[in-house]
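User: Can you write out an input/output pair for a complex, sequences first and structure second?

Assistant: Here is one pair. Inputs:
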Amino acid sequence: MVSSVSVIGKRIRKVDGREMVTGEAKFSGDYIFPGMVYGTVKRAGVPAGRIKSIDVTPANAVPGVVDVLVAADIPGPNLIGILPPLDQPVLASDEIRYAGESVALVVAESAEAARRGAQAVAVEIEAYEPILTVDAALAPDARKIHETGNVTFSKKLRKGEVESAFERADILVEGDYETSFQEHAYLEPETVCAVPGRRFTLYASCQSPFHIRGHVAANLGVPASSVKVIQANTGGSFGGKDDVATEIGALACIAAQRLNRPVMIAHERKESIVGSNLRHAARIHIKTGALKDGRIIAREVRVLLDGGAYASESPFVTMKTLIHAAGPYNIENVSVESTSIYTNKTYCGAFRGFGVPQVTFASESQIDELAEKLGLDPLEIRRINGLRAGDPNATGQIYEQSVGLLETIEEIAKRPEPAGRKDDDRHVHGTGYAAVAQGISNGAEGIDVTGASVQMSQDGSVLVGIGLTELGQGSRTVYALIAAEVLGVDVDSVSVRSVDTDAVHDSGPTVASRSTTVGGMAVHKAASEVKKSLVSMAALMMKTEGENIELRDGFAVLRTDESARIPIASVATAAYWTGFPLMNLAFSKAPEANFDDETHQGDVYIAYNYGTHRMDVRVDTLTGEVTVLNHLAAHDVGRVINPLGLEGQVEGASLMGFGLAHMERIQYVDGIIQNANFADYAVPSIKDRLPTATITVEDPNPTGPFGAKGAGEPPVAATAAVFANAVADAVGVRFTRLPITREDILDALKRGNHD
Amino acid sequence: MRYLKPTSIHEAADALESSRGTILAGGTDLCVYMAEGVCQPETLIDISGIDSMRGIETIQSGREEATVRIGAGTTVAEVAASEALPDCLRQGAQAVGSPQIRNLGTIGGNVCNASPCGDTLTPLLALDARFVLRSTAGTRTVESEEFFTGPKQTVLDPHEILEFIELPSASCARASAFRMIGNRKGQAISQVNAAVSVAIVDGVMSDVRVAVGSVAPVPLRLAGLEELLSGKTVEDLHPANLRDAVLEGVRPIDDVRSTATYRQEVTVALVFDALAACGGQRSGQDEGAGAW
């Protein structure tokens, strides 16, 4: 595509950064409408059972309570979910499948009264013995959590012949690995505000407004066109504000319809942890066979995901683990079986990384174990086996370009060892490496289409509309940069509007690191169409041909004589009065996935982001405390659109991976989460931030704007894996379970000393 | 709910006597309990308007030696920033919650909440602090070590208010240090904390006070360890030498924040680190770790 650029690649501050940090930006909870009332959900409180009765009379008696809704009050099918057949009720009417299950909505004049009302709802539940582990769920005589049984989704990937390859292998390594549930822990808990009228308007802190619109309309029993969803500024999502936003969005709209009053539902932190999806806990078995020279010839993986009470994104997370379990390596024989399981726990769904962190931790741990057995340097084994352009990956897909894994390895290899890491009688040091590949775009999860509009006003300013949401990841800034680059205007003259389902095209969900890649392509196409009008107009004005016109620095410039230039505002005004269109709605459709459903061989993703990380740690052998001294994160991102935004994504994703690897653990006792607050659930604080240095490799991706590809997710997986490998190197003991807490480290040191 | 806002300690004592209400200072613990429905007071007595209960001063009372007096309504942030106070207390205050909580919360509130993991409690024990309790009948003084009777339980009668915290000047003259460990580096609740106060002359330790928190129902002094260390030199300090005496004194439990075993292990390290800091030695943890 374009090689000479003017704003792409510059360090640009977020276009909406100022309003965010000054408090000017409005979030869902900031909306106030006349007559607004507040809703709070009554939750089951027991992990499994059957509702015998719900008595709402005591709640109605609470001062301030204006309405109480139960399942029977929902006009539509009372179902939400991601993939048909939908399996999650908005309000449970019969079976209770997890403790956070919503059974009634209490609406009151104040949030406090609604809370008191919710406490007063009397629910009689015949409790069942909860199914709390995947083993219990898979037991032959296990109670069925859903009519379909306890297996949510199960798929196989088959490439080559692993059995015979294992027989040929010189070295075999085999092991089991586990990861814990993880909470998204966004700053802003889920909040929606529904305003009734001839049509419904829903202001929502959410990730995918069109997905919400569909579910809200269905459960209201109205056409989708009767519902308008406006994404309010959203204080983080990371995959966590899809399912739950449909649940509370539908409830708020139904209550607003009944009362003809605006209704706000704002989750408390505890509800945000207990009553919305988590990252799947995983149990992973891997067997790897290699030749003496270090070449991996076979890999067999079994993944079991604990998906909790409802399917949510489990099928797609299952697919993602299936496709990524072999890692970023060229392995001829691969066999993977991945299965997600229902249990009586909070449902699991999308979470930045989407299954890749779990399998990458397991895979990269085993790669290190293999390297040790082979006497190979950890970088060398990754170098030997790493995917190169032209190599078939686990699904047999071959990319002829934009496979920058080896370059990321070399970037890491050439950085010097940090100084001052000397063990003493109390501290030990270690260094770890990990490599990752993560598919970009919906890929196996379905068709990937984005619609974007670009409109230029007569003053030369630009308005971009797209159905993908800004969640803090910086996508608005990326779109502004792309439009500015194409149209030759300053970034400040581009506005990217908020997502309003009335005003932008359905662009699918904001997931899978696809905003820059797929969304950016649509913006690029729409802007290019507007550019055609401007170029044609400028050519008329300069009495030349369009090919002689260039748009840059706010001017239409004659290529042969740069002093001949017309301000873009003048060109736009003339174009308007001449009748050239100044707005365009363009679609970007990613090449469709094309693979065999039985073997998962074929083309899945439009690109992969590849990365290699290195981490140096110091471990205090008396407390188990880990100090990260150095963290290098090298990723092939195709082309950097905004280095500042990229660094933010890499640093933030890395810290989330670190939380998963070291600190965060949802603690269940008898199906009840014990630490549903930030005092006891240890999400990293600003003081725990890593010294992450972002290193970029640019191997242009032909399917992305200016060669770019997504980067928001892959560092989660790489950091989780590299932490485990660094700590193992320091302590001399391999950990097979995340998180590796200080307690685990101390325990391992003690056991190690006694051996 | 009734809300009273007295402007003097006498008014507050009268109000408490007549209403048996609940004292509100910074509200950083109480308001959480109220929101969770753990506590639903009929009367709130807000003591944040009592000026005499705020501030830190050195008082000289005739025959006795000088005492540092901290008003119970002094904020945790003010304690953390006060150069008049010993290191361990300032460091303990700095480890409480977040900046917002330290700006609102008071040292008296931290003491009266009596959480076994309260970060100002162990420093006060190590400094031989005395608590001055006020009621309509007058005042009585209780030694910090006698004050705590269980998790969230103290010797305070329902009609008493903690008015002042007094530190003997002798304890203020000793070297001191505080160390804690939590589930993350900032805004963390102590899994274990330790405060040490010790006189060191020519490298020899005397008047040793070691207090540890979150390892028993109340913050504890480790008398056996104090005795063991007395007369020893700073150079001879080694975690292994402290271990038995520390473990003998503590009786931690497993809970959502940590395990008993880990708490035991880490108590040894934190006590050592605090002692080493008093002796001016480099130790495992940087000063003030745990605070943000």
